[in-house]
Amino acid sequence: MTRLVRRRCETDGVARSEVFPSGAFLRYWRAGAVSGLGTYVTLFALQTLVVLTLHGSAADVGWVNAARWLPYLVLGLFVGAVVDGRRRLPLMVGTDLVQAALLVTIPLTWWLGLLSLPALMLIVIAYGTASVVNAAAEMSLLPRLVEGQHLQPAHARIDGADAVSSTAGPALAGVLVSAVGAPVAVLVDSLTYLYSALTLRRIELDEPPPRTGVTVRGLLGEVAVGVRWVYRQSGLATLEVSTHAWFAGHAVVGVVLAPYVLRTLRLTAFEFGIVGAVGGIGAVVGAGVTTWVGRRLGTGRTIIVCHAVTTLGVVAIVLAGQQLPRGGTVAVLMVGQGLYGLAMGMSNSHQMSYRQLVTPDELQARTNTTLRSLNRGVIVVVAPLAGILADDWGIRPVLWLSAAIFGIVAAGLGATPFRNVRAPTR
Q1: From the candidate CATH numbers 3.40.462.20, 1.20.1250.20, 3.40.50.11930, 3.30.565.10, the one assigned to the domain spanning 16-203+214-420
Q2: Which one, 170, 359, 371, 374, has the greatest CB density within 10 A?
């Protein structure tokens, strides 16, 4: 709902509009929504490219997933400290253009006959490097665009767009992969990053001037300040340690789902896309009700309930392989993906807004990137292991393992005082 208040306020030296949604936020939101659609196309296309085009195994999918997030593990902590001392909007525009250019190289190398698993991993690592800078700037820019009391609704609106993208992206990718092949489907994402860069350039925002004279020693000190803030001073440690564990379960699902659906269950790429789209529908529903649920349950209980729902979603995905008719298999998979998407659509806005509300502006990039880096670092470590275990044990036991991880996260977080947390206002 648009507020009628028109006053501009100054906090931490940054001008924010009390109008919500403001024109600047809507441009930010549109840029993220469109590039997010392309990202879901690419995530789907990369998995099918490894399995169908390069004839890779679950372990190969795991290595590609690890390559995507490796820059977060290696560079993330330093990127956060650097971004905190820079203007965030120009960084977003520049890295959008870099990501667009890198994605073009995937269909180009395929057309030249040079695309292989190592070549794909190198491209994905470069793409991930640009992505870690973009993500640090993106999440840290939002508190400069909207007032604190609007952060959770702003995140919910962003999550709603992401949920729509996660619905349309896999379905669109399934059609594109079936029609033109996985490498060419990646071109869609390249175009969406170009749109995002052009849209973000239209935002007018007064940001603090960049810091000068930063030394390597000073940068290391700033990294240490960010880590101490997250795990000792901010009160975020309980939530974020549980999130690290959640990402271990998520990494397992991300690795084994494609080979499980395409090889074990023998569904087509189009059917896989439809199943993924149902997960997006669940996320749309979750994002639509999350503010209402959060007001009644509070931040802590909402996140805990979401982790329990995620557990149920993975259990349903495993049960889809119990010798059902093809239509029953697809239906049960849809239920599992729907629950998984519902939980993600509900939980993210509460976790992100709570984190940003307790974090001062000068630590936003370090806090967001420290946590995102460690979460993605979990994927870097777990994804290859999940692929190896899936090839050795079988995919269903590994999926049961992921369900157990999600269940432990929900129960463990519910046993702490975090269950009573409600997000502060400022």
Answers
A1: 1.20.1250.20
A2: 170
